[in-house]
Protein 1
Amino acid sequence: MKSGGLWQRLDRFGRNLVPFAITLLLVVLGAVRLPVAGYATVVPLFALCAVFFWAVYRPQLLPAWLVFIIGLVQDALSGTPLGLSAIMLLIVYGMVASQRRFFMNKPFTLIWAGFTLIALIAIVVSWLLASITVAHIIRPGPAMFQLLLTLALYPAITAMLAGAQRLLPQQA
Amino acid sequence: MAGKIQKQGVMAKLATLRGFAQRFAFASLFVLAFVLMMLGKAENMVVERARGAISDLAAPILDAVSRPVATVTDLITQTTEMMNLRDENARLREENTRLRAWHGVATHLAAENEALRNLLNYMPPAKGGFISARIVGDGGGPFVRSALISSGARDGISKGLGVINEDGLVGRVTDVGQRSARLLLLTDFNSRIPVMIESSRDRAILQGNNSSQPQLTLLPANARPKVGERVVTSGHGGLLPAGLPVGIIATARDGQVRVQPFVNWDKLEYVRIVDFGPIPAPEASAADAPVILPLPERPALRRAPVNEDPPDEDEDGVPPAAEAIPPTPLGSGQ
């Protein structure tokens, strides 16, 4: 009986780690080198999609400090100033948290539209911060292209994450 | 009854307190991220260590994931190469003829250089070595131009070393972990490389601007850069040896001089880290230790300017071997 309880707890612990683990995996995948011309400059923000998704559907399983850590890992892997992606992802997380009621039980297209707005704000803020750190205005073109790619990939990533969500224990 | 109401009041208070704590934690994380950014800008040691530690953890994973990708790319390249074999063969034969002629010139000039250096008691710069490494990650995004390699401090890489490949200068090493390191490509906003225009010897700084063509700044006021001139490292600052090929001047208008680097960024896979300090003894007996190769005597040979007019010094007795290479006919193919 006792060991069964332990196993159950371990099982739940493992399943609760799923959102964090998947998001981290997406960060690593985003850093993989593809031999496509110009890909590295417009690589889609997979982690941004994932953080948005978990913030809407399972915020308890991805607390803000884990979002912060995911951001730091992304910065370390992509070479951006440490903290830049953390700020970007925390902005997404915070905005969803404050508007969570808006996203509850809404059709997918509406959620996608909300994602568009939030991702736009997050990317513009990180563009501004990156420009400040180099004391130059960085051309916004690549960042906007990156936003478009991320928006286009959002449905596919959501479908994958929704599949993973079924592994998770039902919400309390 | 009264107790129940009191209990509810306490619960509500607790809930607001919890919400407040959560908001405070969120704000603290935000501030912490800002502080990290500032510290990183000031090249703080702790931030650099953290960066190195994270990329150390991720480098083996990235290495493993990027290998199948590289295999598929190689397959595609090989197939296209097979289809172009005949053309490629003809081109190579023609290039071989030209290079053989240049080889003669180079051998001769090297001997002459040696003799003149002996006359002058010239001390040659210390010879260094190469550490070869593979690029495993480069998803830098729109704000940086950098790449991650799967070799680090334990392989003898240290901060500031220059990075080249077979085409020319790639950039510099900026962060070093134990088994991974980050390269700042010369196109990045933060990259400054001391260079000179090869023919005029005008010195300048090559400053990245996140575009594919970095800019030449701090050129002397009387410099007249021309489109097509080669730009090489000047050797100032001591980290890079002089004469590494960097690129050619692409545009020179209104005081804006842009350089097209020789390196093809999309096909960058293997790089060499140029180590000019004392080479560490090969104590690392591990089988996967990187190979340290001696520097070739004349690295810039293969891009020798073909169509350039012979310099004025010819009359002062440059021996016949140099003149035996008529520049234009060889350049035009037949």
Note: The mean pLDDT of chain A is 89.
Protein 2
Amino acid sequence: MPPLLEIKQLEQRFDVSPGFWDRLHIDKGRVRYDKHIVHAVNGINLHINRGEVFGLVGESGCGKSTVAKTIVKIHEPSGGRILIDGEDITAYDARKMLPIRKKMQMIFQDPYASLNPRMRIRDIITEPMTANEIKPTKNELDARAMGLLNQVGLGDEHVDRYPHQFSGGQRQRIGIARALSIEPELVIADEPVSALDVSIQAQILNLLMDLKDAYGFSCLFIGHDLSVVRHISDRIGVMYLGFLVETGTSNELFNHPKHPYTRALLASAPTIGEVPHTEPIELKSEVPPALDLPTGCCFQSRCPFVYDACYSRRPELQDTGEGHQVACHLIDQ
Amino acid sequence: MNPPVLNVRDLKTYFHPFAGVVKAVDGVDFSIEPGEILGVVGESGCGKSVLGFSIMGLIDPPGRIEQGTITFNDLNLLEMKEQDLRKIRGKDLAMVFQDPMTSLNPLYTIQNQMEESMKRHSGLNATQRKARCIELLDEVGISQPESRLKNYPHQFSGGMRQRVIIAIALASHPRLIIADEPTTALDVTIQAQILQVMKRLVRDHQTALMLITHDLAVISQMADHIMVMYCGRIVEKATNQVIINQAQHPYTLGLLNSIPKLTVKQSRLPQISGMVPDIRDLPAGCAFAPRCSYAQDLCRTTRPEPTALSPGHEIACHFPVER
């Protein structure tokens, strides 16, 4: 059986060129007309099996949200292929995507911006059903809305209220209820808890895990907080500058991180009274812009172990056993 | 023992909107010694930022400081005139804000903004000021400081801007820096860099630091003392080690437990049920009672007062959790 989601060599580039006159300039006596391309995602391979939670971590601007948006085809991919259930959806237009979108739903980061302030909770939750032309009767819709609200820990009395009457945590619960209303096979959660307080964050994480057990969906969980991603994920991928630099089961990745970037991330994540697994690696500078990709390894400008091969060749993901893959030249040594 | 830099007694800052009273800070006592890092932790709406603003004298109507004393360097800040406060603010008392993208003026160069407080507070001439700017930028870890002085804020990344803001705060050797969520808007690797810079500078200059954040993990790595706030009050106050290892207030314990661990995989997180109550309509007894699993009848009727469990460990709870 094919995995629920498979992406192969996914690439996403955005043209951010300024206007005609700003692009035109003279360089060494020649007129040049430059294009500015942001390389957001650069050839990513990953798959999510049924019932699995795949966590994607990385710092801001590493392309993790772009991957999510490309999977649901909010952006058309610039290259590579996306397969849902073995079905290649890369070239599908909006009409052909309709039945596919029934299988996947998103949960967004900002609970204040992701609910329409002029719709009642009832209509927000049942909108995916009407949009996907699942046509139950009015009574069925109501019953479904109430049932979902109860499942996410809200009461029947909330069904006719508006989003502004809820707190951030409650709104995120509503967002989750909306995503689950058509029982998707894949839930794409883009930083669903990073806008919430810690006590509420714990509630939402527990709720997501309970619902996952009840509905049996698979999940692509995007986050920047390593401890949160580790808590919820079965497997994890670490992204840097649009590349997947390391992937493996969450235990393997956290107990034996191999890529210098993963190790630095783990070392800089603040913890309470815990001893980090690895020797601390301190990163000096900041993430370079994704406008001009370096030849060779994407991490060369910040890596403390950089050597000549890193400047000439781009490392590919290599298997190091137990499903652990790393893209780093140091592994060969 | 050194006399404290800052001594706050029974501070009450209330806001009076059209309906009701928001008791954002409701009877808070604490002091900070020179060179000490005090961490103030709590969830959004607990009054931790208002506490910082109250000390800086930045409370605007409908807010008002109702009661209490704030003694800074033997000066009672609450009885001072605005023009006298201005002589202290930015000199002895500095603030670092959360959002590095909005706390610098986009229309002025970095040098311009760094020199602003120096012009007011120090007798340095233009060349000395420039030299001091370069020295400060170098100290906070900005490379090629001389050429970057002429840059505008948009030419800096978020982490770099926060470094500039810290440099501005340090400009005239303050006695106390109030940092309100200084790293919340930054990525983890940058956060680690900034925190390290702050810790080093505070130690080198014997400046006191009041670090306000919602992140217990950050606090546990930085602070000497930790103060946990809930609904405008301090629920527990102790040294870092005591809070992390021997916290006894159910709220502190709940916060500590609800953070996922990096090293151990848990199936479900222990969670604090319910939500923070509406601050205009707090329950009669302990504000945490509706969410507390240890709550008894006494908690619902009588508000617990802060009491010392051991020297330096204060807690406002009728039934501290024995561990």
Note: The mean pLDDT of chain A is 87.
Protein 3
Amino acid sequence: MSGTSDGTAPPVLVVDVGTTSSAAAVVTGDTTVLVPEPMTGAATWPSAVFWDGQQMLVGTLAERRKRSDPEAFAAGFKRGLADDTSVLLGPRRFRPVEQVVAVLSTLRAEAERLHGAPIHRAVLTVPASYGGLGAGGDWTEERGDEERSRLSGPGTRACGDLSQSASQHSDVRRTRMVAAAEAAGFQTIELLPEPVAAAFAPIAGAPFRPGDLVLVYDLGGGTFDTALVRIGVRWHEVLGHAALDDCGGHDIDALLARRISTDGQQWLAPLTSAAGSSTPATLRLDMAVTDFAQRVKHQLSDAAVVEDFLMPNTPAYRMSQEDLSTLAAPLLSRTATCCTDLLARLGVPVHDVTAALLVGGGSRMPAVADLLQRGLGLPLRRVVDPELATVRGAARWVPVSGQRRVSARTSPEPTVPLSWNIPAGGGRLLRWLVSPGQAYLAGVPLARVRLSSGAVWDLTASSPGTLDRLLVPPDTDVTAGDWLALARP
Amino acid sequence: MAEPILVVDVGTSGTRVALVDGDRSGLIREPGGATYVWPSSVCLDDTGYLVGTAAERRKRAIPRRYIDGPRRAVDAQASMWLENHEVTGVQALAAYLTAVHTEGQQQYGAPIHRLTLTTPADYLPGDPRRDVLVAAGMAAGFPDVELVSDAVCAALDPETGSGLPAGGLVLVCDLGATWTTAVVQVRGNHTTQLTHQASAAGHDLDALLINDLRSEGRAWIEPLLAAPDDAGLRAYYEAIDFTRRLKHQLADAEEVADHLTPLTPPYRLTRDWLAAFAEPALRWLVASCLTVVQEAGATPEDLSAIVLAGGGARLPMVEPALRIGLGQQIRTSAEPELAVARGAARWSVGAATRTVPADRPRWRIEPVSWEIPGAVGRLSRWLVAEGHSYQAGEVVAQVRTPDERVFDLIAPQAGTLLAHRAAVGDHVGPVLVAAAAKSPKALAEQPPGHRQRLDVVGSWLLAPDRQRLVECDAAGRYVRVRGVDDGAVVGELTPPPGDAAPRGGQVFVGPEGRLCLVAWDADGWVSVWELESGTLATRFRDPSTPENVLVDEAQWRLATEAEGKVVGRYRRSTITTWDLRTGDRLDKVTDDAWTRRNPGYAARSGSDAFATSATCPDGQLRLVAGETADGTAVLVVHDVASDHEVLRVQGSPGQRVRAGFSADARQLLAVWESDDRSVVDVWDL
């Protein structure tokens, strides 16, 4: 199963399902192998699906087919996970969670092919905004005092409404991610917040030290996410997070595409009129312009000026890094404001933050670094492949986060469970009158319960013994016959 | 372990307090107050809360910061305003209880940690107002707060509730500010309120009286009430107290008159007028009594008692109205407003008896427990189903911790999972426990708990249903039927003594599985008693005074064997057979070989479930009762699956042993018989 008794670590598939692109890696012990997209050989897979009438194509296959039937193509479905309302792909309707299942199944199949054996365990990274650990979640009530005070601190308030709504139920998106992974054939699924994963990614230069405060700046394809994390050894604590759902690299691509359309009106106009009234043709032309804009942007990551051609027969299009910076400036300044707002809300002065960690494909743009340096005045730390930071970090977290095997307690003396035939079938356990380790005689009251009628009854020992473990804390509703404690006779 | 308990009955206008210490209890007076009734008043002074008489004294000075009845805010589930301070029900009640607590400890001379708080009959289980009462009690410094319904307390009032049969129904009419009727079933610590109704009749009566005062004395009272600022409110409170006083005086007088202030004219009230005012309330009361009795599935004739309690019980017209309306005698005490507090004190005296002993641990079950990392998690799945076995090192379950890590819970050694005891999705921690079957080796090392040993000069029979154990005196003087689990006597039969000395008795299983005692005496009388009904089924006499009595259970016939005449060198036995259904004599033969020819006749029941071998109803254990090579009685139990011996018990010399399992597979029973007595051992499995 997920643990083998001979000590060899079972394989784990680490998956970062992004809004626009996904990445996966197989972790075996300390070894991490990225799962490349088989069509392109790239480490990232487009988060895209295409229904060909019989099966769901995923990744580049879907991207390639989208020109043939744009209406059977979908991307960005991760955004729809909260509502999970189905969308039409060609003739059939699919729920976003089913699209995620398709992506995960394809990744799993490719990973198992690569690994040469079945993989039953998965770690999925999820945005920090998915309620749960960072945002209160429904664990709050059972946490220790230390934990509770932390949760009631400014960090939780930062999440505002979200933590309120999440306090009743676990965020449905987390449940859906787990369900999707189960449907994709995984048996054991763990979730890891994306900024926590990113902060585990290997960075250039000295690694972060425990206690450091790191601002994770994640400019992805579809969204911008930022989070302040406190570095730990096995776990980084998310102190607060914020997101802009309409502020990703693709939004910059769209701005650029619009600029290209305007600039190239002269040579684009005839093409548009040639496409005429045919809807698929117009869609195809739009897609081509968007792809062209992406290509130009990517080249500008390394080159100061780029000259490229939409089609072999169209004139050269020229753009410089400065042009792009100017174009992206309003969008990028919103990301900077989002960061400063987050710090202000958390009450953390900028100089207390150790560094900003730039992750996500969008952070490759030189303009980002300029802007952050100017706007925030923080030291910047980078990872080699920012779009792979999350998956690489999650892969590193797997071996450092501790083993997942818990052996049953063995004690030299036998223990017996204590249960009582509580009148009226049960009540509220008010408190324990004997503490673990304490010996008692027959007839001694061990615990006190209040029945629903209000009457208080004492639960007594029927034979002498020593209380070993309490199984139920005070102030819990208990039923007659429940095992409430373990004792050594 | 007798802990002192403070008992508090917080009423709308008056509160009663009692102190219980061990088996002693007594009402306590308010400091400075002359009566057992503490005013239920709270006043928020600049220095803090004043309660009771202190609050009553201050109310004239600061009427806007005074409230009577701190529980009213709890009743209404709303906050109160004391001038510009918002006071919640919990705060007001906690302030009141804190003062009562302080005074109680002062009088007791030591800390008191336990509180019994009486609750209105309409605060049913699950009502959030009960939580408010508990919270107020805890805020007042009582870690343990017990709630008892006012109606239950009134039914338990020792002054009116004596001599009630267990399970008897008591109709309670508790007439405070709220009038409540309820039917309570009295059964010691399990006394419960079955039905109830409440009305604001008491309030309405007071309002009618105030309105009458205002219309009669319009000329002089309206200016007082209309006075600006606090004076008007002060006058209003005075007027309420004034009418209450008059109402109470009418309990002893036909007519009363009094002055609201020394300067105002007299106001008169007669008993007739009061009766007229009270008429609608009384009509409600009688109708409500009939309703709650009917809802409890009873009629007024079924009631063991009708108890009238609360200050309203003093109204002279109430008791006759109820007596006529219900056609029954009414019980009421001299101080009906103390009834609830006295009953609550009686309830609290019994606190030490409200205990439940722990269930007997099961011999063949042992807990397997895992510490959940981080002490809390959610059970994501079981990989071993209930009733299935697992290997050492196998993953038994998976738990998801709040940080979304998933942990495998590993079996330490091979075993069988009997019960999960937590469902998928449950929050678990700090320990998750499952029930596992103990290995045969562990069973052999840890013998089962010996529950008890029962001894009789006579015989034991394990009824064919294996749920009852029958103890029979050797001479047939009594039979006791006991439960196999705890040995408690569930039925007993003692035939009336006859003229002759009893000679013998045995229990047999008659037609339709009925247990019957067959007893015979020195005069040759044979009596057959049915244990269930306690009736004598038949009786007949064999004048030859039999030596032996044999019964054929299948035919339900009996044979008496008597020493017969001497024929030549032989003394021959005479056998007489009888029909046990009718008592008729069937036959009489002299035949040495008769018993051999009629094997159905036996001196003891052939349906006895005590046997020399048996298999446990769950199929897991098998017992053999026999003798060792040297003739000592021995009981051996094996685990069926592994054929391991898990228990061996030896008897004393001269004993014979038979044994059996109870029908629910929870007990192992063995009977060790010697010539004159037999002993039963019971073990918990």
Note: Residues 1-6, 133-169 of chain A have pLDDT under 50 and may be disordered.
Protein 4
Amino acid sequence: MSATASRSLVVVSAGLSQPSSTRLLADRLSAAVDRHLRGAGIEPQIEVVELRDQAKDLVNNLLAGFPSPHLRAALDAVLAADGLIAVTPIFSASYSGLFKLFFDLVERDGFAGKPVLIAATGGTARHSLALEHALRPLFAYLNAAVVATAVYAATEDWGRSGVAAEDSLVERIDRAALELSVAMSVRGSAARKDPFGDPVPFDQLLQSS
Amino acid sequence: MQFGIFSVGDVTPDPTTGRTPSEAERIQAMVAIALKTEEVGLDVFATGEHHNPPFVPSSPTTMLGYIAARTERLILSTATTLITTNDPVKIAEDYAMLQHLAGGRLDLMLGRGNMGPVYPWFGQDIRNGIPLAYENYVLLHRLWREDVVDWEGKFRTPLVGFTSTPRPLDGVPPFVWHGSIRSPEIAEQAAYYGDGFFHNNIFWPAEHVRRIVALYRRRFEHHGHGPADQAIVGLGGQTFMRKNSQDAVREFRPYFDHAPVYGGGPTLEEYMEQTPLTVGSPQQVIDRTLAFREVVGDYQRQLFLVDHAGLPLHSVLEQLDMLGELVVPVLRREFATNRPPNVPEAPLHPRVLAAHAAQAAATVNA
């Protein structure tokens, strides 16, 4: 791996309060991925998308059919990213509505094979499987490559030992971050297809139709 | 350059009075708007095609035939004719008949429609939207150019020895525009045939309009129809005017806030900033429209949407008066300035072209 290699990492956080435990978890995850990528000689470029700041624009896009420039920039960043960390609070046994609004608007073909780390926060560990039955299928639909370890942080997890004891939050963050950084470094830098670039020629479109 | 009106044909309550026009009133209002379009000196009236409430224009050629009989110069068009769910044979027949009755004052814009259930209602599947648009147009294109057609495709019964009648007037098929907001496949289709490409330019930021029109122009050249700057481009636009811009905003706001396509989303101000919607003075409309040229290059047709969201007929007719008196004459002059001589006008039927030439000569001699 060349010393000048770089990867873009986008962190999408759907936390509502400021500060939020969702953002806290997102920051811990991105710091861990940053560390692992640097350890592999890769320079990470990290951008955080706070969905709270996009809430009105998300609803507007839903109703008007096009994104504001602010939202377009966030969607473009996610589509262009070499890797993604997506973190949501769990509401009513699933991702929050705000989180889903955002991922309803990303173009699916910008996601194929993208390494994604999914994570969630909640009041109790009883909701942790929402990651597996809600977030993982969402990203599977988008054809993303979701890493094996999903990280759930219940309120009680923040009050345990800060060392990486087996299956502690710290250990899970580190394991998931390593998985994502490996996936990102193996996959290389993604070039996004421009739908208005060179189109499929008409003869070919006609034959395949 | 051509200027005109395109109407969706929605029946929408007037939010300021709560009153909903009847279908009968809305249909007559569309006719009145079309007649006014000619009266104030604009060039084109285009009607939508819809097959569900709250829209009235399900039968565009019937309406346009009636308008053709009551106008002299107006070019009749559609925005859009559903190439997906209409039988291309019936499109070929209906629009050729209309072309005869209108003395060539006809073109049409093809689109796929945007209401899912219309597909099954007409025996089609929305998942085949693009393939239907392609295959049906292959057939339509042949029916207007070949006297006897043998045909077999995926979506309609085969034809053996079929002749679509009447044949196009003087053997010249109606000019076709392909309308699309976001599908590069349709821009490619328009470019492949050397047909026109129309962007409704209403619900979409300028940057996207720029990119899809640029794609169409590049591919028009690629497919051998001439340089990219000679491709045939049409744009929509939406305006509401009063002499003072504050009055325009005050009067239009309730219509914007309650319109089914706008209400509840971005504010009027955000919408004006992010899309070509212009609510203001005639000068603001002039400035905004002239700037479209910077987005898509010199183009051939500009249509305005002025009659939706429940606006009463008298307001719409006032909009047309302002367009005809204050806006379009300036736009004609300004767009003609610096327009490279190699940029063509929108294609016209030879009979219409001859009539225009005769009229121009008569004006010069008068």
Note: Chain A touches chain B through 20 residues (CB under 8 Å).
